[in-house]
Amino acid sequence: GAGVSQTPSNKVTEKGKYVELRCDPISGHTALYWYRQSLGQGPEFLIYFQGTGAADDSGLPNDRFFAVRPEGSVSTLKIQRTERGDSAVYLCASSLGIGFVAEQFFGPGTRLTVL
Amino acid sequence: AQKITQTQPGMFVQEKEAVTLDCTYDTSDQSYGLFWYKQPSSGEMIFLIYQGSYDEQNATEGRYSLNFQKARKSANLVISASQLGDSAMYFCAMSDDYGGSQGNLIFGKGTKLSVKP
Predict the structure, then answer these.
(1) CB B72: neighbour CB atoms within 10 A?
(2) Which one of A103, A105, A111 makes the best mutation probe of the B interface by having the most chain B beta carbons within 10 Å?
(3) Which CA distances in Å does B34 have to A57, A103, A109, B50, B59?
(4) Average pLDDT over residues A2-12
(5) In Å, what is the CA distance from A38 to each residue of A49, A99, A115?
(6) Cβ–Cβ gap B45/A43 under 8 Å
């Protein structure tokens, strides 16, 4: 079956621009996570959705970052006024919801480069 | 605060030999899950093995086993019969809400494993 997909695979933008990163989870997975992985580091949690609502957004670094999941499936991570420090690989993962072992299936990531 | 520590930035192993990748964790929760992921150079995170905090037996998945020592708060990954394709970054991670409503993962910095022919 289809895994988690993310688009675009690469995004190059200029400082100050707005970007959107898309995640399409595995069909039927109600939980969706966004992580950010900087070079040489492990992924860092950003935000988690259970269904349509953001159940935990404590990992978002500041108010320039926002994510939505309006229909409980596809999610979009939005970054306003991008900064060079936002350059990283943004990973999306999905899992079956509450009551299951929280094995998360990851997408291939979007590599964001802010010039 | 929850934390995962991987003290080995890089490891080498001869093909067909076994290797242990170290992981220690810190949490005040009684219920938690421990995970190992593999990240090849392609970048995708591949789930390897899971251990729940209440599981009495060490988890095994094929050539992967998890040496879980709860009192020492360690969850080392053992790879038996290493293959060239095992060369990758390996991340230890923890979920601080075992099967619950959150499940967001806290990752270590990773260990780069290189398998020599």
Answers:
(1) 9
(2) A103
(3) 22, 10, 22, 6, 10
(4) 95
(5) 22, 31, 16
(6) yes
A-chain CB neighbours of B61 within 8 Å are none
Does residue A35 sit at the B interface (CB-CB below 8 Å)? yes
Of B43, B93, B105, the CB nearest to A89: B43
Q: What residues of chain A, 62 to 81, have a C-beta less than 8 Å from chain B?
A: none
| CB atoms A33 and B105 under 8 Å | yes
Greater pLDDT, B97 or A103: A103
Confidence of residue B98 (pLDDT cuts 50, 70, 90): very low
A110, B74, B111, A56: which is closest to A46 by C-alpha?
Answer: A56
User: What residue has token string 């995708």?
Assistant: B44
Furthest-apart CA atoms within chain A: distance in Å:
43
CA distance B51 to B67: 9
C-alpha distances out from residue A93 to A44, B45, B56, Å:
12, 9, 28
pLDDT tens column, A40-80 = 899 999 998 988 888 888 899 999 999 999 998 999 999 99
Q: Is the pLDDT of residue B99 over 60?
A: no
Q: What angle do CA B65, B2, A89 make, to 5 degrees?
A: 75
